[in-house]
Amino acid sequence: MTEVRVPTLGESVTEATVATWFKKPGDAVAVDEMLCELETDKVTVEVPSPVAGTLSDIVAAEGETVGVDALLANISEGAAGAESAPAAKPEPAAEAKESSGGGESVDVMVPTLGESVSEATVSTWFKKVGDTVAQDEMLCELETDKVSVEVPAPAAGTLTEIVAEEGTTVQADAKLAVLSSGGAAVAAAPAPDEAAQGKQYQTPPAGDGGPGKDIKDGPAAEKAIAEAGIKREQVQGTGRDGRATKADVAAAVAAASAAPAASAPAAAPRAPVPAEDAGREERVKMTRLRQTIARRLKDAQNTAAILTTYNEVDMTETMALRKEYKDLFEKKHGARLGFMSFFTKACCHALKEVPEVNAEIDGNEIVYKNFVHMGIAAGTPQGLVVPVIRDADKMSFAEIEKAIAEKGKRARDGKLSMAEMQGGTFTISNGGVYGSLMSSPILNPPQSGILGMHKIQDRPMVINGEIKIRPMMYLALSYDHRIVDGKGAVTFLVRVKEALEDPRRLLMDL
């Protein structure tokens, strides 16, 4: 018997209300299939099934208020009366043992990919069939929409079978390979029962209910339908009595977007490549990360009313302050004093005065954030990622510099987790490190503002009637004009400029 409990609901959230049950006692459930939906004062949380089996009983009925880790239901694994129920859903790289041939076979499974990530692509195998591997040695690398995940060997032995070849898209907790942990290679573990395997990945049929039969969908599904701008009739509900889940809405949106693409006139064919150039081209498939970057950037342009305002800042005082204290700063704090901490502090200072730049649109409501989770855009060999520094408004210069250095290193090494790239409220992008003099950054949805930094360049400026050479930087603030007016955007950028041209203002909170 496996218990289904209330998951972590988020910082400062201690209880939730059971909004909708998608299954009833006696229903068969697959691994990760949605069981119910919880509603807190901030978000709606879907609760997936931790194992495949049968829903035995529901402990917390719809409408009940439950605390974190409270018991929601029980699931019996496998059919009643079966001699051996399937094992509970294993941890990443779980083991499936057999005794034939004097050794044990160990299944290598897809590890946990992160919240809302259900599939990945096998990008690289570091080992081939027949290779000997040590425990925790890297076997392969998976690529998701946001991060790369390395899969270590769960045991020492011999790689006897590769189930998912390079380029294969695999679901969460699918089998990747089989290891023989004995001395001699043994036969690969038998493939899972096809019917059970199908249950894990296929959407179960909808119930007898559905749209038009007085069946109320969960709040998360209703919100997703409203945000997607589609009709309920377009969504095929797979929950209890035909109720829709967020996954059903996502599938309907994907189908709706694919249909016009299929019926639209074909794009103009690519011009024929001259024979002498054909051998000099290289065609490479876009990585999942690059596809996601492309989709999110285009979605931002299609959704938000993006406008950019510009200003320039004289970096003389900030550069002088940094030069004077950088050695002492590094000696005391063990971190280099860069410009990013100044810009982060200046932005946090300005966001207090212009809170709409730190807000987001949620349906017909504006959500103002009384905290700053600062996204710092970082270019990596795999593409652009935005690690988030949480509660940056409460951090010191040293804490900010350490956090930026640590996140930047993890980003370059592909070690960032999904959680580290979620929840940002504002973003800073520094194109100046690549030599950019001027650009218009694109919003990072659902945020309403992003600051673009650029290269520092000596330019002649008129100071008190005299022409002087000053280190100048152009600043660009892109903002969502749906909730940020021009006055607020300009005020924000002016406050950032003032704080950098006179860093003492940050100390005096002016």
UniProtKB/TrEMBL annotation:
GO cellular component: cytosol; oxoglutarate dehydrogenase complex
Reaction(s) catalysed (UniProt annotation): N(6)-[(R)-dihydrolipoyl]-L-lysyl-[protein] + succinyl-CoA = N(6)-[(R)-S(8)-succinyldihydrolipoyl]-L-lysyl-[protein] + CoA
Entry keywords, A to Z: Acyltransferase, Lipoyl, Transferase, Tricarboxylic acid cycle
Cofactor: (R)-lipoate
A molecular function GO annotation: dihydrolipoyllysine-residue succinyltransferase activity
Biased composition (Low complexity): 82-91, 260-276
One of the Pfam families matching this protein, by short name: E3_binding
Family: Belongs to the 2-oxoacid dehydrogenase family.
Pathway membership, UniProt: Amino-acid degradation; L-lysine degradation via saccharopine pathway; glutaryl-CoA from L-lysine: step 6/6
Protein name (database record): Dihydrolipoyllysine-residue succinyltransferase component of 2-oxoglutarate dehydrogenase complex
EC number: 2.3.1.61
Subunit structure: Forms a 24-polypeptide structural core with octahedral symmetry. Part of the 2-oxoglutarate dehydrogenase (OGDH) complex composed of E1 (2-oxoglutarate dehydrogenase), E2 (dihydrolipoamide succinyltransferase) and E3 (dihydrolipoamide dehydrogenase); the complex contains multiple copies of the three enzymatic components (E1, E2 and E3).
